[in-house]
Specification:
Cytochrome Bc1 Complex, Chain D, domain 2; two-stranded antiparallel sheet; mainly alpha; single chain; 266 residues; 55% helix; 2% strand
Length: 266
């Protein structure tokens, strides 16, 4: 009996064996998950062929844009044709949230972007296959490292009459407006100059060379970093806000002081 008991006793597992098996299981599971995650990440980082990109862009277009622009982007009563607008126009309109529009109106407004950049690139690639149009520019032309002084002069000559000399925007006719130009992505500024969205004219390379467009972008980014070098900007809206300030605050203050002095003398 004693030998049998000792045999059974020696055959028992160590009390820490369960914990050891649990640790080993966790290491094995974690290693397998890490290996799988690395494989997925490498698969996602792998370059997508142009054919696959265009195919994905067509699917996204049919799901989100065809109801207004037509199944072949030929246009409908609800939206214009996109044949020939080029990849840059898609990047600007969708990348700024203007498209898809939330509701019909005189102007497409900026909203939170509805798509990721890879999805935008895919739709832009598909639209670019429909007909020749403005493509994505070389990054050197929107690097915002150009001549700020020349950009300021070009902006005053070509843009300030609508967007305000400080880029604060302004009202137009029939419920439309020139939007403010603060804190924008340089590629979207370049895209607006090339594609001419809404009421904005198109600035081809004959009007403004790519280098001059970069100068304009450099000026606008300078304004972002130096919003009001002269003090309180009053919204940078010019004589309207300044006149209201003078009449309401300045003249009102003088009247208040005059009344106070008269009361003291009496």
């Amino acid at each position: 009996m004693a030998s049998s008991r000792s045999h059974r006793h020696s055959g028992r597992r160590h009390p820490l064996m369960g914990a050891l098996l649990l640790v080993i299981g966790l290491f094995v599971t974690g290693g397998a998950y890490a290996a799988a995650s690395t494989g997925i990440a490498h698969a996602q980082d792998a370059p997508v062929s142009q054919e696959a990109l265009v195919e994905e862009g067509e699917k996204l277009f049919l799901s989100n844009c065809a109801s207004c622009h037509g199944l072949n982007a030929e246009g409908t009563v609800a939206g214009p044709t996109l044949i020939g607008v080029g990849a840059l126009s898609v990047d600007f309109q969708v990348g700024t949230g203007r498209m898809p529009m939330a509701a019909s109106g005189p102007q497409a407004e900026v909203k939170p972007v509805q798509f990721t950049q890879p999805q935008i690139d895919a739709m832009a690639a598909w639209v670019a296959t429909l007909a020749p149009g403005p493509g994505m520019p070389d990054p050197q032309y929107y690097a915002a490292d150009g001549d700020v002084a020349n950009g300021a002069e070009l902006f005053r000559i070509n843009c300030a009459m609508c967007h305000n000399v400080a880029g604060a925007g302004g009202a137009l006719t029939e419920g439309k407006y020139a939007p403010h130009l603060r804190d924008l992505q340089p590629i979207h500024i370049y895209g607006a100059m090339v594609t001419g969205p809404q009421n904005m004219p198109v600035f081809s390379d004959m009007n403004l060379t790519p280098e001059e467009k970069n100068d304009v972008i450099s000026y606008l980014k300078y304004l972002d970093e130096n919003p009001s070098v002269g003090g309180f900007s009053l919204g940078s809206l010019g004589p309207v806000s300044e006149g209201l300030f003078i009449w309401l605050i300045g003249l009102g203050g003088l009247i208040a002081v005059a009344v106070w002095l008269t009361a003291r003398s009496n």
